[in-house]
Amino acid sequence: MNQILIAGFLGLLLSVLGTPLLIRVLAKHGYGQVIRDDGPKTHQGKKGTPTMGGISFILATLVAYAGTKLLTGQSFTASGLLVLFLMTGTGLVGFLDDFIKVVKARSLGLRARAKLVGQLVVGLSFTALALQFADGHGLTPASTHLSFLRDFGWSIGPLLFIIWGYFIISGTSNGVNLTDGLDGLATGASAMVLAAYVFIGIWQYDHLCSTSLTPGCYEVRDPLDLAVVAAALLGACVGFLWWNTSPAKIFMGDTGAMALGGALAGLAICSRTELLLPLMGGLFVIITLSVVIQVGYFKASGGKRVFRMAPLQHHFELKGWSEGLVVVRFWIFQGICVAVGLALFYEW
């Protein structure tokens, strides 16, 4: 368990100290946020705030994980490395998107097709690799079974699983990306889900079928190392939130949002909690649905809108809620979702 404490502490320390350095580098090169003209007018004051801050907590997480292994003498695991690969790969796609935005000074970055191809390459690579690297008990980082609190009783086969896994990765990455838009909102919401995965990893490790053939045991490869990865990223997110909370000195950008979504999806797939993730990440689901509803109704009704603006957080801003009020209330909703998800996991 020392690994979890060390990983969390290192992630926090590296992010808290590293983020101000990144802010200075980004500001020096003029890599500031481009603000949409049709958004809330209060956001215009944020124009030019350094973006691509996700670089900070991605690097902090990678170094914290590696440092933890060196300090404790423990081995790297296939599951932990694959989740980190997914986090970094999706973050790289987001970085390319951000870089195009800041260089060309426009609010749209990568073309939709290019972003889709990037997500496709990273997502399919992860899901294909996650079905390899069986341990001594024949367990691979992922399985071809659908899962909620653990695997269901049937297999969908490797091909369908790879498609299903990509859907989870793409949906979660885009969901966190849509949630990012207010100071600290996506960072704090993601940190809550990561804390849940620290608990899930520890609990699964203490109730593995390979060591305790009791009712309700778990067949998961490397659950403790998944908790270590989650703790490293949790600490890095908390450290980043110190600088990202209102008024934000830096934004995570698509770099950070897509990396967080990728990491959460990877943790869900490797911990066999794929269908539990939408419940614990309920805020991401609701905000994504608000965009789908807005776009669908706009097209079907010939230009009418359900919300004043989508994603949902901006609707409430335009209704007169302050940014801080929206963030705190959305955090409360996310906290309830995580609590319900953990209660189901613990009881069943």
Walk me through this protein's architecture.
The chain has twelve helices and two strands; from the N terminus they run H-H-H-H-E-E-H-H-H-H-H-H-H-H. It is mostly helical. The chain has one domain. It has a two-stranded antiparallel sheet. A hairpin with a 3-residue loop joins strand 1 and strand 2. Helix 1 runs parallel beside helix 7 and helix 2 crosses helix 8. It is globular, with a radius of gyration of 20 Å.
Low-confidence stretches: none
How are the strands ordered across the major sheet? Answer: 1-2
- What is the number of strand segments? 2
Radius of gyration based on Cα positions? 20 Å
- Class by alpha and beta content: mainly alpha
Instruction: Describe the sheet with the most strands.
Output: 2 strands, antiparallel
Which descriptors apply to this entry?
348 residues; two-stranded antiparallel sheet
List the helices and strands and how they pair.
Elements: H1 2-28, H2 54-72, H3 78-104, H4 112-130, E1 145-147, E2 151-155, H5 157-179, H6 185-206, H7 223-244, H8 253-270, H9 277-280, H10 282-301, H11 312-318, H12 323-347
Antiparallel strand pairs: 1-2
Question: Quick gist of this model?
Answer:
The protein has about 350 residues and is mostly helical.
